Amino acid sequence: MNSSVPIWIQVLQALLTPIIAALAVAIAYGQWRTGRQQVVLELFERRMAIYDGIREVIGKIIRSGSVTDDDQNAYNRAIDRVDILFGSEVTAYLSVLRTALTAHHLAELLVERSPSQKARENSVNRQTKAFETIQGFYTEFPKLMSRYVQMHQRVPDKLSNKYHAFSWIPKWLRLK
Hints:
Layout: H1 7-64, H2 69-78, H3 82-85, H4 88-113, H5 117-135, H6 137-145
């Protein structure tokens, strides 16, 4: 078969299709990785929003030393989606914290309404115990939450081609 096209052009034409396919695969991989990182970031942001909401409620309670109905409602709103975004150990801890909030609030009411000194002392003791549990939020919850807010993927270093999507292409063939 005699062709008027030089052999080097024929070779280039034959290699062009696999090169374009390889570039398409590299671009698809880069898009998949970007999408995955975006999902991880969105999950991180949702978890941190829950943490911030709970911390805000607990901070208000610690500053005032009192648990109101509004505080309990705000706490319940803050933990509304915890079971979806966190594991059972976080849900269990926040349930214990909810119980402590309720116990503190109830003990507060009983201190005000108790007719006898002994009943008031018992209520104050229960209130103190519940308050200690509430204060423990700042040490216990970050430990429980730490595994849920870590970014497990390394951020690509701009100076290194190790994580570059096109690192498999020879340097002499890359566009500058």
